[in-house]
Each structure stands twice: as C-alpha cells, then as structure tokens.
C-alpha cells in the first residue's frame, strides 16, 4: 500500500469483483470495499453495528449491503442502517487513480 496526499492505495480496480466485498486492513482498521454494478466503488467499516458481522461477506444490492449475520440493510453511501433497525457505520472516500482504488478520510 502507498499513500498519495492522505489517500492510501489499497487494491487494483480489476481485482475487485463487481458486487463482491473485499476486506482490506488499513492503519489497523478492517475496511470492506465494494465495486457496485453501476461502477462506483464504496468503502465502509467492515463491522456491522449490531453484532460485528463482517460486512465484506454480505450480499450487495444496489447501494446497500446486507449483514451476513442478521440481514441488517446498510447504506454503502451514508453508512446508515435501514429502519426499523438503528445504527451507523463509518464510510470512507474512494478514488480511482491509474487503475488503483485509493481510500481517504482515515484520519
């Protein structure tokens, strides 16, 4: 992994399957990265706020991921859990540069 102005290179875009999550470790944080069917790439904390389910293993539908443990529906855009459940996860900025996915906002 390398850095470019507080963005960290994490994976080649071509190595990220469409609608299949991928876990990466960045600065000791487990992050789930998703390449959506519309081409967007989203990165979020890899733990569901309910029971710490691994979101990278969840099912992707549109701009949402469903936690593999209890099926909580979580927005990959805002990090918010869909009602009637409550909670929110951290989202991260993503950018594609020269065919690589970079993550920002890791503070």
From TrEMBL:
Pfam families, alphabetized: Rieske (PF00355)
InterPro entries for the chain: Rieske-like_NirD, Rieske_2Fe-2S, Rieske_2Fe-2S_sf
Gene source species: Paenibacillus selenitireducens
Organism classification: Bacteria, Bacillati, Bacillota, Bacilli, Bacillales
UniProt keyword Iron present: yes
GO process annotations (BP): nitrate assimilation
The keyword Oxidoreductase belongs to this UniProt entry's keyword annotation: yes
Keywords: 2Fe-2S, Iron, Iron-sulfur, Metal-binding, Nitrate assimilation, Oxidoreductase
Domain called Rieske: residue spans: 8-103
Protein name: Nitrite reductase (NAD(P)H) small subunit
Example of a GO MF term: 2 iron, 2 sulfur cluster binding
